[in-house]
Amino acid sequence: MTAPARLRVGLAGLGSMGRNHLRNLVSRDDVALVAIADPSDEARAAAAASTDAKSFADPLAMLADEALDAVVVAAPTTLHHDIALAAIDRGVSALVEKPLATNVDEGRELVAAAERKGVLLQAGHIERFNPAVVALGERLASGALSRVFSIKTLRGGPFPARIRDVGVAVDLATHDVDIMCHLAGARPERVYAETTQHIHTTHEDLVFGLLHFPRGTVGLLDVNWLTPEKQRSITVLGDEGMFRVDYLTQSLTFTRGAADLSPTYLDGYAPTFAGETVALPVTPAEPLRRELDAFFDSIRTGSPAAIPGSDGLWAVALANLLLESAAAHRPVAVPSLEVSR
Questions:
Q1: Which of 82, 105, 120, 168 has the smallest count of CB within 10 Å of its CB?
Q2: Which conformational region is residue 224 in: left (phi greater than 0), alpha (psi within -120 to 50 degrees), or beta?
Q3: Domain 7-127 homologous superfamily, CATH
Q4: 283 burial type by CB count under 10 A (0-12 exposed, 13-18 middle, 19+ buried)
Q5: Is the pTM of this model over 0.90?
Q6: Contact criterion met (CB below 8 Å) for 101 and 316
Q7: Domain 130-287+318-333: which CATH class?
Q8: Angle between the 16-27 and 287-301 helix axes, to the nearest 10 degrees?
Q9: Longest dimension (CA), the chain
Q10: Three-class secondary structure of residue 47 per DSSP
């Protein structure tokens, strides 16, 4: 069936991410935001200033009452499963912000339902659409590093009081395990993690994780809600040198060792070696806009989701395996992830 030229879209959730989706959706001329849903009267009233979309307190009521082509699910994580499943049952394409679900069973059910009904399910892993990450992925795919030794990620910042339903592993580390798998072109064979809980009332707020990939690449992730400033970076080390991405500035650099390896000295006594670093071209763009572009393009063309639900399921599975490893104080093997239709 051919998709209409102007898609009828609903938005479930008007929290921090939902408001960013709202801003993007109302600015597009290729979609019509016809319905919004959030239990907060205040949030819905604020949204009314930028859209004349019909307002619902319950996202399930929105899906039942409105004829939608697509829905963006930006509600709290614990609600993703029920909202997305209701959309899939009605044949409505769904973009579900990460994490896809709270746990593997819920994620598996969503992926199976979408495959069974032939409904588009896109996982909202926004970092894949960061222009610097895209540029890095293209360079790695073209063989810029003949071997990848390690992929190291840092994702830190102050504690967001709005996050109470899950810990930092499921909420944030899902970003980094997804990016690692994407850049490594493989799933890890085993994982190990340590977690701590300092300020969150019910869940972990820091996780250090190690991921071992089939060809010997090692992934190292540092994710926390304890850092006083927002930090987002990824470093890929290999034979020819080192790539580094700063997500926030959308910058990409490459560093290789100096040809003569002559040391310089800090304060006249501490030897150090300065590599040769070059800034690589990246055209800035809003990742969320690109995420929505890909989602709506898949609906119109019938092409597969840019980031299929199965990738979102893997991210949830790996985040939960990190938690399992931390609880058991041992490495954990990564099992196969079968989805039964």
A1: 105
A2: beta
A3: NAD(P)-binding Rossmann-like Domain (3.40.50.720)
A4: exposed
A5: yes
A6: yes
A7: alpha beta
A8: 60
A9: 73
A10: helix
Say if residues 231 and 157 touch (Cβ distance below 8 Å): yes
**Is residue 156 within 8 Å of 226, Cβ to Cβ?**
yes
What is the residue whose two structure tokens read 């009605």?
A: 90
Q: Where are the domains of the chain?
A: 7-127, 130-287+318-333
* Three-class secondary structure of residue 20 per DSSP: helix
Q: How far apart are CA 28 and CA 189, in angstroms?
A: 42
Q: Order of strands, edge to edge, in the sheet holding 148-156? A: 276-280, 251-256, 241-246, 231-238, 148-156, 218-224, 206-212, 190-196, 332-333
d(CA 312, CA 84): 13
Comparing C-alpha atoms, which of 155, 176, 159 is closest to residue 167? 159
CA distances from residue 296 to 7, 92, 231, 301 in whole angstroms, order as listed: 8, 12, 30, 9
pLDDT in tens, the chain (341 residues): 566 679 999 999 999 999 999 999 999 999 999 999 999 999 999 998 899 999 999 999 999 999 999 999 999 999 999 999 999 999 999 999 999 999 999 999 999 999 999 999 999 999 999 999 999 999 999 999 999 999 999 999 999 876 677 899 999 999 999 999 999 999 999 999 999 999 988 999 999 999 999 999 999 999 999 999 999 999 999 999 999 999 999 999 999 976 666 777 777 777 777 778 999 999 999 999 999 999 999 999 999 999 999 999 999 999 999 999 999 999 999 999 877 66
Based on C-alpha coordinates, what's the Rg of the chain? 21
Cα–Cα distance list, 233 to 46, 56, 141, 151, 175 (Å) = 33, 38, 20, 11, 12
